[in-house]
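Support case: user asked for a sample of complex input and structure output to validate their parser. Sending the pair below.
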Amino acid sequence: MLRIENLTKTYPGGKVAVRDLSLHVMAGDLFGFIGQNGAGKTTTIKSSVGILPFESGEIFVDGHSVKKDPVTCKKLIAYLPDNPDLYDALTGIQYLNFIADIFRVSGEDRKARVGKYAQLLEMETSLNTPISSYSHGMKQKLALISAFLHTPKLLILDEPFVGLDPRAAFTLKTVMKEFCDQGNSIFFSTHVLEVAEKLCNKIAIIKDGEMIACGSIDEVKGTQSLEEVFMELTDHE
Amino acid sequence: MSNFGKLIKVNFLVFWGTLKNRKKTGRYAASGTMMFLLIAFFGLMMAFQSVMQTTAFIQEGYPELSVFQSLMSSLTIGFLFGLMRSATSPASKDADMLLSLPIRKIVVILSKVVTQYIFDGPLILLIFIPSVVSYYAMAVRDPGMLTRGLILAFLLPLLPIAISYLLGTLISILREKFRMTGILTTIVLMLIVVGYMFINFQSSGLLAQVSDGGKVDSAAIIGKFAPLSWLTHSVLDGGLLPILFSLLMILVPFWISMLLFASRFGRPENGYHSTSRVLGFEVKSPRMSLLQKEVRRYLSCTIYLFNTAFGPLLLIIFAAAVAIMGPEKIVSSMNIPVTAQDTIPRDLINVLLGCVFFFFPAVTSTSASAISLEGKQLWILKVHPVRTSDIFWSKYMLNILLMVPVSILAVFAVGIRAGMPLPGMLGLAVAASLLGILISFVGLIVNLWFPRFDWTSETSVVKQSMSVMMTMLVGFASVALPIVLYFTLLSKYGFNGFVIVSICVYGLLAAVAYLYLNTKGKKIFEAL
């Protein structure tokens, strides 16, 4: 579903954020991407969804190149940033309608999906209110509802649990599992190692822009806890 | 260093840091330097004009009017500063952080006010102090007058601060109570500005009489508007009552505004909250949805609306003025020198009216800040399957919808009143529309060259950005081009020649701009 091949991304000024990174997210995978602050997680994610251009390597979504065919790739993806800045001038429902229009979701479908996810995330009473008055968590929830509007095949989430209340975090974990059980895929970054350990079937660990471990959760952690493995692998000498 | 000093210092460091962050490339360094030079040039020009004006009034025998006039100019600038700042929320982004520090709240508030004084005050001082000093040096050698004038000069910048905090508080209260406060606020602000312009226009008319060598009653001019009269007399005569009224007029609103600012500082601004569960699901095409988003953003942002609705608004006022007063009176008020004729030729009247039609669409453009206003929300357009050409379309279409229909209606309203020939009138409508379209494209192109996404207040993008200033300059050049061509080469072809050259110039430039936007422009946007 998502194939990253030898991705290298250098920022102006010469800082190499990601170096020769490759990974493969298959259909049905719930793929966790972990690393320290500044390791290159967000850069990899932003390159995958078409926000950041990259110099070398290739990224494919369901076989389509992000570089050559970005619009087709974007139709298959839903992305949730770590800090979702949404249009403050719109109300929640106006924003959802805007996203649904972009993906050409029919009136019936958008009504059903907004209803379902707004209820799950307890947002029904806030959708007619301007986004400018939303808290961080509410914006996060609204961005999540918008992510499910067009039934994407691949969800790319950057720190999706930050700012969510415990009930919403639990709901999100349930929804994520259901989504992957239907044959779709999720690629997400997180700092919460317990969540990654319990939720994911595959894990990649990145350090200073380079992949230092990648595989199924059992392959990566072996008999240790994920936290122990992470501390060992990312330990500075 | 005291806490107060540290806070002032950090405010400047933040300002300097913002400038430095923008200097990532030579282009931004050049734009920053250019902005600084423009402001410095403007300030020095105002100071020079104050001195020249005082000299002229002294020569005409009305030295006291020089102080009155410079007071009026200072208040105008201050008033505009105040309005500009009031359109943005009075709450500071760093309020939570500052209030959590072991510093008294009054010190934090004072540091904010003093910083604003340091930024806004110099321009007002540059206008007022030279005229007071010139009046002292050339007309009345009274040290008392000079002292009073200098004290007033340093008090004047408190007025715009008071206006900005008072109106800003009012606007933030409206935001909490009503859903679409953008339009309401803008209408209120525009009415205030139009009212102020009216007062200013009346006084300027009387002052123009003086400069034309006419006899006027200077006491009547000064006494026409009580607040201005108090301020002027407090400097000129030093009477107890004018001084008292002037101090009350400046210090009372300032004090009230400080109390309001302090009471709301750090308080979270709760937007309008609806509890309605009735959700609307209207399906639209991606293009129309993008345009609707642009319109909603436009209507919700007071400073954006206020700054760019002035072009069409002034065009409507101009059309109404021509319809009521007649074109001859309007054109003759432009002080056009006409040789060997008692009346201005009909063709020249039509050409001059055409120039006015071109001027208004050229000075305001929503598209000049449309890309920058995406700010931190740019990711939404980048990650969704939207064609760049559709994004551009929604952004320039907003400006076209705002400017072109008003231009066409104004051309026909004025054209019929002025007795313009129908082909000329139609041609002028086409030319004005093409210019509106051209400026919409140009604004977007310039904004692609000079985008700015790191803003914390829309004001810095809508009013103070390089792209807006550059677009305005290109707008002036676009207005001038057919006029220069007409008066240098084509005047023998009359009004029709002017119309044809305007259509050709604007049509050609709009086509080139459209092509650029959809080729190079797309690449620039995709690389943002």
